[in-house]
Amino acid sequence: MGVLFGRAEHTMDVKNRIRIPAKFRTELMGDDSSRKLYFVQFSDDCIALVDEQGLSARFGSFSDIDPMDEPTLNALRFFSGMVEEYEEDSQGRVVLPKSVREHIGADKNHCELVSVGMYSYLEIWTKEKYDKVVKGQTPASVRQQLSESKSRFHKAEAEQRAETGK
């Protein structure tokens, strides 16, 4: 799979179908039209479209769980229930499952959507929610936010190493 960047606006039709914008579809599918893709609820306001490798990366932390650890099993049940397989029709459209539409708030015909490339996966938002999330963002504010996030990550990493003595 290639790298996904950029954004594209598109519309859900009256039968709840969308077409993944061509620039993203090509990168997601590569040369393998049989590649499996999945809708996954990563955040509260959007849905992600990931390939099997991306899905495995997200589920990998659950592979070694204790079958007697009920809270972790419940988390796995919850997460597993938030995954829907992506299935295109012969014209390259996919019906957004009801759970996906409800999750992102795409509850009306001809709903305007925004797809955003997030490097290794694609996010799909309603235009209304996306516009609220990015409102007020500037290149300078994004650089500042990323710098602060990176600092917090490195600080937490250093604290963890100090605790474990590594």
How would you describe the overall organization of this protein?
This protein is an alpha+beta fold and 166 residues long. It folds into two domains: 7-135, Chemotaxis protein chec, CATH 3.40.1550; 136-166. Helix content is 41%, strand content 20%. The protein has a six-stranded antiparallel beta sheet. The protein has a two-stranded antiparallel ribbon with strand order 2-6. Strand 3 and strand 4 form a beta hairpin. The longest helix is centred in the last third of the chain and has 26 residues, at 139-164. The chain starts with 6 loop residues before the first strand and ends with a helix. 20% of the residues are buried. The model has no long low-confidence stretch (mean pLDDT 85).
What brief labels describe this structure?
alpha+beta, Chemotaxis protein chec, two-stranded antiparallel sheet, 20% strand
By CATH, the architecture of the largest domain is named 3-Layer(aba) Sandwich
Compute the number of strand runs: 8
Number of helices: 6
How far apart the termini lie comes to: 35 Å
Percent helix range:
40-55%
* Physical arrangement of strands within the biggest beta sheet: 1-7-8-4-3-5
The radius of gyration is: 18 Å
* Unreliable parts: none
**Major sheet size, sense and barrel closure:** 6 strands, antiparallel
The CATH superfamily of the largest domain is identified as: Transcriptional regulator MraZ domain
CATH topology type of the largest domain: Chemotaxis protein chec
